[in-house]
Amino acid sequence: MAKPLNEREIVLGILMDVIEHDVYSHIALGNTLSKYQYLDKKERAFITRVTEGTLEHMLEIDYILDQFSKVKVKKMKPVIRNILRSAVYQLKYMDSVPDSAVCNESVKLTVKKGFGPLKGFVNGVLRSTARGLGGTEYPKDPVAELSVRYSMPEWILRKWLAEYDMDTVKKILTYFQKEKPVTVRCNTSRLTLKELVQRLRTEGVTVKSHPYLPYALSIAGYDYLGGLSSFREGLFAVQDISSMLVGEIASPEEGSYIMDVCAAPGGKSLHLAEKLNGTGHVEARDLTEYKTGLIQENIDRMGLENISTVVQDAMVLDKASMEKADIVIADLPCSGLGVLGRKTDLKYKTTERRLEELALLQRNILSVVCRYVKRSGTLIYSTCTINCTENMENVQWFLKTHPDYVLGSVQDKVCSRLQDAIQEEGCLQLLPGIHDSDGFFIARLIRKGAR
Length: 451
Known about the structure:
The protein is of the alpha/beta class.
């Protein structure tokens, strides 16, 4: 029988999947922790912190390694460079782990993975790094320095600095590297917020109210979500406050027919179904049966009946749905540059060309799904990014090419704390580090009444 993997082997496996095999980090980490639920809370916490921390600081770690290794990171064998990366993260950011333990465990892992001849190299690099880490010199160029210190690709920084001032960009970068609590939405169809707070506290969860919405909470101090009976019973949904604001800005009336065209995993669809108070209907669409299956799992858990799923490509016009919906939610595929604090590896996988391709994809989808909105109905366009190309520029293009739409006001849909986030009358741009949320963009577009 195979010997169970230790924490460092598990970390290495996740890093190899994410960095070398292009698996998204939140998927790789989630699947792995699900597989190793027998580990205790401390071991699971170590795996999560070292994995996420190594990915978050990877550009800085590589910069440091290149100063202490004769073999540059790019020329190292993949297994070796990822053993070294996770070790340098521990040396620099985890005081609770002695330097000697980091070095010794890394050497053991090198041997165990079949690279025994390189154990001296690994040991030498890490001991040199441990001795010289405090004297690391960073680049003199301001953008290059930001790139290394915050492990953010320079092309992203230059794009942001063209749109925001340096102070704002630094706040964004700092926020991404902070530990963030999980934000949840109370399932008000099942219980009151007060009842949910009491239930969570009996399960040992630390609970704090959110300043933007009365039914939102920040939670911390638990092992994993599946271990909470309140989660399994559908008493709350995990959803960032920025995503909840889509439901607030959509502001559905009871009895409305709502279509969410890129709905997985279903947070916005479920929120809107709750807002309908058992009336109307929400149709949650996505591209594949796998994605609609994820939505259905959440529907079943939350116990809502006025919502269904449909497999439908948002790029393909569904003639039967033309002018059928009171509200269409178009939360479209995007670069994800507003959620880099939660999906850290996206910054390494996204390119400037890919960003331009996504902006065009968004325009193509909007041109299709806008036809599903009734006269005087509402189209909500949203992305989890903070760059103008995918946000305001697309809204301006849409209004120019679709004269039957106008911007609707969002001022009365959001709390006073978010008035500074309103870019134009019907557009909200949330910035991480400036607002208490992920980076997110929401535009409220109204289709004109009479033909």
